[in-house]
Amino acid sequence: MKTYQEMTKEELLFEAAALEAEFEKIKAKGLTLDMSRGKPSAEQLDLSMPMMDVLDSKTALTSSDGTDLRNYGVLDGIPEAKKLVADMIGCRPENVMIYGNSSLNIMYDQVARAMFDGICGHTPWGKLEKVKFLCPVPGYDRHFSITEHFGIEMIPIAMTENGPDMDAVERYVSSDETVKGIWCVPKYSNPQGVVYSDETVRRFASLKPAAPDFRIFWDNAYAVHHIYDEQQAEILEIFAECEKAGNPDMVFEFCSTSKVTFPGSGIAALAASEANRADIKSQLVFQTIGYDKINQLRHVKYFENIEGLQEHMKKQAAVIRPKFEMLEELLSREIAAREIGSWIKPMGGYFISFDALEGCAKEIVAKCKEAGVTMTGAGAPFPYGQDPKDSVIRIAPTYPSLEELKQAAEVFVTVVRLVSAKKLLESR
Amino acid sequence: MKTYQEMTKEELLFEAAALEAEFEKIKAKGLTLDMSRGKPSAEQLDLSMPMMDVLDSKTALTSSDGTDLRNYGVLDGIPEAKKLVADMIGCRPENVMIYGNSSLNIMYDQVARAMFDGICGHTPWGKLEKVKFLCPVPGYDRHFSITEHFGIEMIPIAMTENGPDMDAVERYVSSDETVKGIWCVPKYSNPQGVVYSDETVRRFASLKPAAPDFRIFWDNAYAVHHIYDEQQAEILEIFAECEKAGNPDMVFEFCSTSKVTFPGSGIAALAASEANRADIKSQLVFQTIGYDKINQLRHVKYFENIEGLQEHMKKQAAVIRPKFEMLEELLSREIAAREIGSWIKPMGGYFISFDALEGCAKEIVAKCKEAGVTMTGAGAPFPYGQDPKDSVIRIAPTYPSLEELKQAAEVFVTVVRLVSAKKLLESR
Lengths: 428, 428
Description:
2 copies of one chain form a homodimer. By secondary structure, the first copy, chain A, is α/β, with parallel strands linked by helices.
């Protein structure tokens, strides 16, 4: 098969015409398909239904330390839930605070607290002229929305196959005291599925920030979200590395069971050093008396321990793996072979980040929409929604059924080919 | 029986000496009792245990509009939960937003949002030189903690048997544009149990605020928390009154099922006008994707409707009523008869607010502590913890068993008598 670059102008014109006809046929089908949402499918959710049976009216709703979980109190979570979450992300239970149902809410509150109260006695960010965050790109749009909402200036940092460009990170963090944070998804990053290498994690832990209240926002959202039973990635545990490097207080780590059990009805957690936890609690007491401890107990009773949770995640993987494999095969055959797009093969997480030819992403997303296939908006994985190369498209394969996904993916590759051919023709 | 005022100095000295001896005897018992916490007792919590059975792995976890409640989405709550909550507080379902487990958290977030984002396009309070809140006293300490945390100046407003002193409220609100809010617990107020009269509610609804972003923080925490099956108070519905008075956007109303089902595992809600809800959601989308919808469904399935919830609250009342009646009887006999204290008999809510002789509250609480009985700190129901008359003590009778409460109450009345006798002797 010829790549599009290898084709003559005439061949490309012929290809574009054929694809245009194909595109019109697809449109006529009136499809309604969606590859935009990083949501579990109903089949995945079904896997967690037995969790609805682990507590009933005969269950003693008490924690291991005897606390009646039906009443007020316990600001930072029950001991057994701390243990489960700690095992999920590899840290110590005493680092963990269990919150409500949303790690996004915890992240928002962390930034809000830094803005209004300041971190560990430092000047509240809201009182500073300028506050900046480093934003590895492509990244998670809801991270960027939080920092944008608070008027924090976002600086894009290029991603590599091993994590963010650490030369750039080190340069900014060590030289600019207005740089107060960085958004990281260290394992199976959103959207690329990048796993931070040991060297990347160590360089993070060894940062020498100009700002004493610089914090790494370490969103370990996909800690246990493998796609394959073999080839499961592990990352270095960030707290241990930070302690070794003399930076014990530099990290806020976030995680949840939203994509383990039920999004919206899971448990979310923050892990932090003792000093950070004390600082957080000094404000949190004004905000709430405590989170849903019964739901914490429900999760613990359901999984029993980390092995139970890992077994559960294997079942999740079995549901989503065929979807990733199908996409992988189709994109390799139809796109990579023509050299009109690339991606990193994800081993975990919820996305494939597709790099189209420069200047094609918006057009591809628009034409997919025209053909009844909703994709995440082009630019969404970038601060301010601006992809400088107009090239990145986040593909979310988990929510549709395999059959629907196949249909949607076939539309997608047709559109990528069409838009790419036309783009290349512009310069012929 | 002579009142303490009627006693001669010698009689009072004799009384004080006898009480001192009695107090020493009590101390020797080494009691550990608690009347400080506005928490349901285990017996009350037991009443809600059947709620743990209404959902199981066979239940379709979908809302009335067909939404899969196990997945992401539904920012402001499921329709049937909105209906249940609306019926609880008497407003329209479309006014209601269902949040997570804590109305306190909603209130905190409302103030935080006003501070940072501003209300409906007005200048964020955090950018103003001065922001003030009116605080009816005695009131709820956690309300005052929120406003204090945000540096909002608190102005105490006297409570009457019909609600806050509305002359003072009207004067402040209409003349001072730095007055941005007022904390209200309109039904069975914390701690006095005051029920706002129709005139009070109408005068609230008819306020003419100098500040366009003035809001009434209407914490309807005890909407269905009656103590007696007869004599249940009703208050006018604030949104309807506000609309009539041309102030549709002036109220944020809060409530929860924390003291209906399980504190920490209930559902909490905010009710507001359309303009306010749109304003809130424009920020809330950055904070979370949605709250625990399965727990919303659990509550709806358990109660079925408002009648079911009211039946449940009758059972709660049957548990707490003997405690209030015992206290009422004991305080009447031992304290009121001696004219050394007064209170308003509460018909609902969780507290009795005891007015000791001036200058006695701190001493009474300290001596109770000495005798092994924990009371809410004197001053707690006032902004900055300062009770100008050092007179108010909040009594929380629900958490201990009736037997423990009796013991604690007997210690309390002995201490009140002792401290009062000594106080009166100071001026003899």
